[in-house]
Design goal:
Elements: H1 2-25, H2 30-51, H3 60-86, H4 89-96, H5 99-111, H6 117-133, H7 146-166, H8 175-193, H9 197-205, H10 207-236, H11 238-245, H12 248-259, H13 266-296, H14 304-308, H15 310-318
Length: about 325
């Protein structure tokens, strides 16, 4: 169930790019779209939280996680959008998708547990499929600015940290309230970089399209994905969430084909297939290998005197 929720969150993220392109065609600019998604998302999530505020009280540790996750959300937004301003979209996506191996490495260092060979094969398939799916060619890699590369990798690292920290959220805390707080922190941080002037101008001049597209962008990029991810990740872990999150790119390619009328070459479809195959290899096959290994080498049965305790062993020895 939780894996399905993470897949749904990734699919919604994938639909954001095609919907953004429709919003830009309707007259919104990037700054207005960014401010609109956070403002509307915060309003929607707080409305939900007011009616579904259940769960234990937020302690200091959970408050710290909420603030850091919100700041990582804002940092990802800022660095990725800045990278898109100076890089071709295909290269920006390739750099951003490095979050897969970054999250895997952070998880391995955190838990001191190195991933198996199936997981690494899956990551190679995912990263190779990413390059093909976005249509990145050799010419697009020439004369790439170092600063733009750092921005793209910074976005990947911020997203990887976001996923890893989300795994440590307390499931007993209301996910609706936690989501509202995360988006509020992220929105305040984003507004310091992207002042709301453009959003206010669009809202005053063209309120209907601004609210319409802002609602859909907020719903697909912040409201539902944040809710689903913050519920699912504590149960599946940051590494698995990163692998399942790669569904975003296949959905983005299919969404651009259906909603924007983009031509998708056979090479890009091959990239989509490789990403999906990498997800299967990384999760399904690695689980099967783990189950087979556990069956082949069951844990040793503890001695009966250790199971019953030293005191009972002494009593039994006296009889």
């Amino acid at each position: 169930m939780y894996a399905i929720m993470m897949l749904a969150a990734a699919a919604m993220y994938g639909l954001v790019s095609p919907v953004l392109r429709l919003a830009y065609a309707a007259g919104l600019d990037p700054a207005a779209a960014t401010d609109a998604q956070y403002a509307i998302a915060a309003a929607c999530l707080w409305l939900v939280a007011l009616f579904r505020h259940r769960g234990k009280r937020i302690d200091r540790r959970q408050w710290a996680l909420i603030v850091i996750i919100g700041l990582m959300n804002a940092l990802f937004c800022y660095t990725y959008y800045r990278a898109l301003a100076v890089l071709p979209a295909s290269l920006a996506i390739v750099f951003m998708f490095q979050f897969v191996w970054m999250a895997t490495l952070i998880d391995a260092l955190w838990h001191r547990r190195w991933p198996g060979i199936a997981k690494w094969i899956g990551l190679v398939l995912i990263l190779g499929g990413t390059v093909l799916a976005v249509g990145a060619t050799g010419a697009s890699w020439r004369e790439v600015p170092v600063g733009a590369v750092l921005l793209g990798l910074g976005a990947a690292l911020a997203y990887a940290i976001n996923l890893t920290l989300s795994a440590h959220n307390d499931p007993a805390v209301s996910p609706e309230l936690r989501s509202a707080l995360v988006i509020t922190v992220a929105g305040v941080a984003v507004l310091t970089v992207f002042p709301p002037g453009s959003f206010v101008h669009h809202l005053a001049q063209r309120p209907a399209p601004t609210l319409f597209w802002g609602f859909w962008i907020a719903l697909l990029s912040q409201v539902l994905p944040t809710l689903f991810a913050l519920v699912a990740i504590p149960h599946i872990g940051g590494r698995m969430a990163a692998v399942l999150g790669t569904l975003e790119l296949p959905v983005a390619v299919i969404g651009a084909w259906l909603l924007n009328g983009d031509h998708v070459s056979p090479m890009r479809w091959l990239g989509v297939a490789l990403i999906l195959a990498g997800m299967v290899v990384s999760e399904t096959l690695s689980r099967e290998r783990g189950a087979m290994a556990a069956a082949a080498h069951p844990p040793a049965r503890r001695a009966w005197w250790r199971r019953v305790g030293f005191a009972r062993w002494r009593e039994a020895s006296r009889r």
